[in-house]
Amino acid sequence: MADYKDYYKILGVSKTAGDAELKKAFKAQARKYHPDMHPESQKAAMTEKFKDINEAYEVLSDKQKRAIYDQVGSADYQNYAKGGG
């Protein structure tokens, strides 16, 4: 089973965050954790973190995906997105 990912926590926003706040948080996190901004020894870890940030923004910035995520949570959302819901 996939680990639970709290997309709000990943981006550092509240559950009531609007589109502008989400976008601002995404840009800040993406800049902070972009693999190219870190030494070679940290690239693998930063790549995973960067993927999580992108996944979180992809879900939370889409109103329909966000509504489903808020209803079922992360692990169930991932199963739902794969066609299991």
Task: Note the main attributes of this structure.
85 residues, mainly alpha, 5 helices, globular
Quick overview of this protein structure:
The chain has 85 residues and is an all-alpha fold. It is built from 5 helices and no strands.
Structural description of this entry:
- The protein is mainly alpha-helical.
- Helices cover 69% and strands 0% of the residues.
- The longest helix has 18 residues.
- The chain starts with 6 loop residues before the first helix and ends with a helix.
- The model has no long low-confidence stretch (mean pLDDT 88).
Layout of helices and strands, plus pairs?
Elements: H1 7-11, H2 19-33, H3 43-60, H4 63-72, H5 74-84
Helix pairs in contact: 2-3, 4-5
Beta content: under 5%
Which word captures the global form? Answer: globular
- Which range best describes the helical content: under 10%, 10-25%, 25-40%, 40-55%, 55-70% or over 70%? 55-70%
Largest sheet: number of strands, sense, barrel closure? none
Order of helices and strands: HHHHH
User: What is the rounded Rg?
Assistant: 13 Å
Total count of helical runs of at least 4 residues: 5
The average pLDDT value, as a whole number, equals 88
Distance between the amino and carboxyl termini? 15 Å
How many E-type strands?
Answer: 0
The residue ranges in which pLDDT falls below 50 over 5 or more consecutive positions are: none
Q: Provide the structure class.
A: mainly alpha
